[in-house]
Amino acid sequence: MAMKIKVGDVEIGGGSPIVVQTMCNTHTSDIEASVAQCERLYKAGAQLIRLTVPSMSQVESLREIKARLRAKGIMTPLVADVHFSSEIAIAAAEVVEKVRINPGNFHKDHDKAKEQFAKLVEVCKANGTAVRIGLNHGSLGERITNLYGNTPLAMKEAVMEWLNMCVENDFFNVVVSLKASNTHVMVEAYRLLAEEMQSKGVVFPLHLGVTEAGNGDGGRIKSAVGISALLSEGIGSTIRVSLTEDPENEIPVARYLADRYDHRLYSSMVAIALEGKKAIATYRAPSRERLLMDFSCDFGKRLLDKELDEVELRGTYVDNGEEKVLDGSEYAEYLTDELMQAARRRFYRPEYIACPGCGRTMYNLEGTFEEVKRRTAHLKGMVIAVMGCIVNGPGEMADADWGYVGEGNGKVSIYKGKSPVLRHVPETEAIDRLLELIEKADA
Ligand code: SF4
């Protein structure tokens, strides 16, 4: 079992209920908007709220946001999300209950990173602040990828270096994450890490998430597949479902997963028959949402692990008060296609990587992502990323074939793989340019 840590008054790990968290997509410097969003997220049931801190001046904004929330009686612990600056992480550790750092960009120089991390730990110890070592598949450093490739093993090895630094510094108020947009990579990386920590006898609690999962049904199914596969194995103490939508929408999805794997909620599947590696599952689902989540959790892991090759969905679900039959329906086919895609067993449409957006996002991410999806729907199997900012976006796109990355000031960069092929494209033209480039590359 993972050790128990405390973030403010919230306990994570050590047999505590699974903790649901999310992240603001406001600009942290916009104190009014950030406080209002935190308040809505608190009311929706978020137990931890993260805010991006891209500059030193925003550490002060964070301080003010926290003070205003506390004045309203909202005690939800806040988490500072820090990239590319160990100094900001150290400053934020005095202000909020937890700091998320990314080993891939904490400090360019590895030896200096160790020094700065020791300083961060000192401040955390003095203030009772927790740390998340939040590694993402897309932002693995060159040193590690040269040694282990761009693999789940590399993710595990990279994070173990940091966990060893925590142990050396006698600091255990730590949560770890190894997120990826690819459910296979994500599940494998967490499994490797869980096993390694177990064998070393120092088990830090894990924060689970499928990063850049996208939006709508696809984003929910993909998140449910990755997160449920691990929770069902007893791996994971806190979760975030990342959707390219209003962060309030993440909470019911995460709540479902927490309740289900804390055994407070059960699947609406009433029967299952197996024909070789095909399952025929019958549901009596009380709603469309429940069907989607139940089905994803019941079969995501089995498809991901190739225990099953096919699933057929039967039974009924309730939609707007009306009972609908699934047998042979388009909806059953659509949900099965989405699940197969999320488990990476069959690709019936493009694979989208879209960040959830945060205070660094400089354009209408949700609207743009919908438009990109609409206009690229025919490009089956292609991996297309839509990212909110030029600072983290390119690093986080992982294995995307093409990327649409917001630069700010109404401009966009278009990437082919890891390389920018067009810069400073006006937003109004960027989707056209992206499609032209894809067509040209295919010709
Ligand atoms: S890639 Fe998206 S979520 Fe990540 S820092 Fe940039 S805008 Fe925020």
Structural account:
By secondary structure, this protein is α/β, with parallel strands linked by helices. The protein folds into three domains: 5-261, Dihydropteroate synthase-like (TIM Barrel, Alpha-Beta Barrel); 269-342, no CATH class; 351-442, Sulfite Reductase Hemoprotein, domain 1. It is 42% helix and 23% strand. The protein has 14 helices and 19 strands. The chain has helices spanning 31-44, 57-71, 86-92, 110-127, 142-148, 152-168, 183-200, 216-231, 250-261, 288-304, 330-342, 365-376, 393-396, 427-442, and strands spanning 5-7, 10-12, 19-23, 48-52, 78-82, 98-101, 130-136, 174-179, 207-208, 238-239, 269-275, 278-285, 310-319, 322-325, 351-354, 383-387, 402-408, 411-416, 419-426. The strands form four sheets. An eight-stranded parallel β-sheet has the order 8-7-6-5-4-3-10-9. A five-stranded mixed β-sheet has the order 15-16-17-18-19. Strand 5, helix 3 (86-92) and strand 6 (98-101) form a beta-alpha-beta unit. Helix 10 packs across helix 11. Bound molecules: iron/sulfur cluster. Iron/sulfur cluster binds at residues 355-358, 360-361, 387-389, 392-393, 396. Iron/sulfur cluster is lined by residues 355-358, 360-361, 387-389, 392-393, 396.
